[in-house]
Amino acid sequence: MNDRELVDQITSLVAEEQRLQEQDHHDQERLRELEVMLDQLWDLLRQRRGREEFGLNPDEAEARDPNVVKRYWQ
User: Fold this and answer.
1) For the CA atoms of 55, 58, 59, 60, what is the dihedral angle to 10 degrees?
2) Which of 14, 71, 60, 73 has the alpha carbon at shortest distance from 41?
3) N or C: which end of the chain has fewer CB within 10 A?
4) Residue 26 DSSP class
5) Could you tell me the pTM of the whole model?
6) How many other CB atoms sit within 10 Å of the CB of residue 64?
7) For residue range 47-73, what is the model confidence (pLDDT) as tens digits?
């Protein structure tokens, strides 16, 4: 997945998250799933950009385990 695809997917998931939050009774389980997926995608995008900045192949960046990224400070 390239940077543009990652940004597009992030944008789509953020829109879904916002729609759910606007509902009177949001689906808490889905919101948690979205949060983890967004953390993974943002992390992957940061990895890709960091690798590119230092002359490394961004395509070698890999999505981290959800248990790793959910512990990141926001």
Assistant:
1) 80
2) 14
3) C
4) -
5) 0.88
6) 15
7) 999 999 999 999 999 999 988 887 666
